[in-house]
C-alpha cells in the first residue's frame, strides 16, 4: 500500500487496528468480527442525516425562488426605465460587467450536493490503544488478508469529507416554553411472495415544560385513528378525563407538570398482520436469464395521507460479479461494492408520486437479492393522532406551544 493511500485512508486503518490492539496487546477477534465492528450503522444517525438533507433541499429551493424574484424585479425596473432596487453602487467597484442579478444569485445559491454521500465517520477521541510495537508483521498480514478477500477500503476524497464535516450541526428547532414531540416508529416484516408476517407501530406524545407558569395545562387530543391502535396514558394522567373528553391533564389539577423534563403523557401501539395496513409495499421480482438475473423491484404507497422523505431501498447484490446494469429507474441509485448493496434512493414518496420501479441485471440467483431493507423518515405520523391545542387548567385560556412530529423506521424488511 502506497504512502498516499495510507494517508488518505488513515481513519479506516486506525479503526480496524483499534479493534485488534488494546493497551499494546492483541485482542482475540477474527476478521469477520472486525468487519462487523467497523461497519456498524447507527439508525439515529441515518434519521438525523435524512432530516438534515431534507431541510437543506428546502432551503436551496427557497433561495432559488428568491433569486428568481430578484431577477424579475430587475427586469421590471429596466422596463420602467428605473434602476432595480437594492443594486446601486456596484459600478464604482469595478463590477460593471456583471449584472446585479448575477451577483445576487451567486451569493445565495449553494453548489448542488453530490449524490454520493460519504459514509459517516465514527467519532474518535484520544486513545492509548495503538501501541503496535513489534506487531507490525501482524498488521501487514491483516491488511494483506483484507486485500486477498477483495475488500475495497477506498473512501471519498478529503475534499468531500471536509464539505460534509462543515454541515454537521442541524439548525436548532424553535421551541416554545411548552414543547411537544409526537414520535412513531415502525417494525415490519413481509415475505418475498407476499403476506405480512408482522407489523408493529409504537407511538408516544412527549411533553416538555420549560416555564413553571405553564405547568398546569391540558392537552386537547384529536384522535382520527381508524386503524385500531391501543392507547395508554401515563399513570399520573386522569384517564377518565381523557376517555370522556380526549383531554390529557394530571389527576390532581392543582399540581403542575415537571419543569425541564421530558414526560411521556400518551403512548399507543398497533400490531397487525393485515396487509391493507402496510404503509409502503415493496415487490421484488428476480428472474434468471442465462448466467444473469433480471430484477424488477417496485414500490407503492398504500396510505396516501403519508409523505415519506429520503426513502432508501437496500437490495443485496452478489459480490465479485461487477456492478449491476441499470435499466428503467424512478429516482436515483448508488452501488456500494464494499457492502455489496444497491441503494435505490427516492427523495419523496407521496400521493403525487405513489408508485415507481427499478430494473437492473447482474449475475446471480434469485435468493441473492433478499432480504430487502427499507428506511425513510416522515413528518406526518401514521396513526393520525394530533394535539389540537393546549390550554391552562384555570380559565381554559390558550397556551402557545411548539410541536415536532416524526415517523421513522426501526425495521422494514422483505425476507
From TrEMBL:
Compositional bias segments (type: Basic and acidic residues): 57-81
Keyword annotations: Cytoplasm, Cytoplasmic vesicle, ER-Golgi transport, Golgi apparatus, Membrane, Protein transport, Transport
Keyword RNA-binding: no
Disordered: region residues: 57-91
GO biological processes: endoplasmic reticulum to Golgi vesicle-mediated transport; Golgi localization; protein transport; retrograde vesicle-mediated transport, Golgi to endoplasmic reticulum
Domain of life of the organism encoding this protein: Eukaryota
SUPFAM superfamilies registered for this protein in UniProt: Second domain of Mu2 adaptin subunit (ap50) of ap2 adaptor (SSF49447), SNARE-like (SSF64356)
Ranges where the MHD domain occurs: 175-415
A GO cellular component annotation in the UniProt record: Golgi membrane
Location(s), subcellular: Cytoplasm; Cytoplasmic vesicle, COPI-coated vesicle membrane; Golgi apparatus membrane
Membrane topology: Peripheral membrane protein
Protein family: Belongs to the adaptor complexes medium subunit family. Delta-COP subfamily.
Described purpose of this protein according to its UniProt entry: The coatomer is a cytosolic protein complex that binds to dilysine motifs and reversibly associates with Golgi non-clathrin-coated vesicles, which further mediate biosynthetic protein transport from the ER, via the Golgi up to the trans Golgi network. Coatomer complex is required for budding from Golgi membranes, and is essential for the retrograde Golgi-to-ER transport of dilysine-tagged proteins.
UniProt subunit comment: Oligomeric complex that consists of at least the alpha, beta, beta', gamma, delta, epsilon and zeta subunits.
Protein name, per record: Coatomer subunit delta
Origin species: Pygocentrus nattereri (Red-bellied piranha)
High-level lineage: Eukaryota, Metazoa, Chordata, Craniata, Vertebrata
